[in-house]
Structures are given as structure tokens and as C-alpha cells.
Amino acid sequence: MTKIDIIQDVYEKLGFSKKDAARIVESVFEIMKDSLARGEKIKISGFGNFSVKEKKSRRGRNPQTGSEIEISARKVLTFKSSQVLRKALNS
Amino acid sequence: MNKSGLIEALSKKENLTEKKAIDLVNLIFKGFTDTLKNGGRIEIRGFGSFVVRDYEAYTGRNPKTGKNITVSPKRLPFFKVGKELKAKVNGK
């Protein structure tokens, strides 16, 4: 499934034009991206939570050369699936 | 931000009635759930992708009691963040 499929679904089921459907679907992901970029958590009940975690810098190794390198501090986005979704996948 | 926050932001940004915004957001996540349920993959450019991984049954251990337990086969959803969003959360 890609954005194209979602747009098609919105067009067929909710009565938007294809052009509007495309713009609005894009907006949904833009809103989510902007919110995450601000470091906020997104909770979608029944689906899961997206949250931004701060990682400290640490020493790592280049697995190819074996030389030690500094891995800089960074933020990573994690997704925790909801119990409802996990149940749905296993029913 | 929770689902109602997303709905509110969407209705404001796109000038939609609350009802339309609710239907839209619900349709997207229902589509996601149904796709994953059928073992399908979801790929949203700039955002990320979702896949389902299958796990075989294995013998695990209850870390509290140390007892052996059989973990039945299961399927779990995974999210991989997209390049654009990965950079964005790092302020780039």
C-alpha cells in the first residue's frame, strides 16, 4: 500500500475529487511529520504510538575496518504498535 | 498529539468539517490495519514504511521466575522511518 492507494480509497469512499484527496492525504502526513519534528509524541488509539527518543553519543566501531568511531548524539523515531493492532494481526 | 488532535489540525488546515476529517483519518488507519492484517507492506514516501514479521514458536524463559515457557508463533508489525522524516526529527 502506498499513498496512491490511500488517495484512491479516499476518492472512492469519501467523495473527494482525486486532486483534493491527494492534497488532503499529503496534509495528514505533513501534520504528523511536523508534530514529530517538534519532538511531540503521536498516539493513534488502536494503531500505535510514534515517539522521538534522544540517543546519547557513544563509541562504536566501523564493522568493516574495526576502527573506533564516535557515534554522535541523535534523535530517533520509534513506533510502538498498539495491543489492538497486534491482536488483529494474530487473530 | 493524539488522533483527535490530528483530526482537529487536519480540519483546520484543509478547511474540512469535523466529520470529514474524522472519516479521513479513520479511513487511513483502517487501511493500514487491514493491509498489515493481510501481511501486506505499507510505504509512505517521506514518512516511513510498515512491515509484518513472522515469528516461529520458541521456548523462552519467564525472566522473573526463570521457568521455561513456550512462546507461540506470532506476527508483529514494524515501522521503519523514512529518510526525510529521520532527518526532520534531527532538525535537518
Please explain how this structure is put together.
The complex is a heterodimer of chains A (91) and B (92). In chain A, 43% of the residues lie in helices and 30% in strands. Chain A is built from three helices and five strands. In chain A, strand 3 and strand 4 form a beta hairpin. In chain A, helix 1 crosses helix 2. The longest helix of chain A has 20 residues, at 18-37. The model of chain A has no long low-confidence stretch (mean pLDDT 95). With 92 residues, chain B is α+β, with helices and mostly antiparallel strands. Chain B has one domain (3-87): Irregular (HU Protein, Chain A). Chain B has helices at residues 3-14, 18-37, 83-89, and strands at 42-44, 48-55, 58-61, 68-71, 74-81. In chain B, the strands form two sheets. In chain B, strands 1-2-5 form a three-stranded antiparallel β-sheet. In chain B, strands 3-4 form a two-stranded antiparallel sheet. In chain B, helix 1 (3-14) packs across helix 2.
CATH architecture of chain B: Irregular
Number of H/I helices of chain A: 3
Strands of the widest sheet of chain B, in order across it, are 1-2-5
Shape of chain A: elongated
Can you write the helix and strand succession of chain A as a string? Answer: HHEEEEEH
Helix percentage of chain A? 40-55%
Total domain modules of chain B: 1
| Strand order in the largest sheet of chain A | 1-2-5
Mean pLDDT of chain A: 95
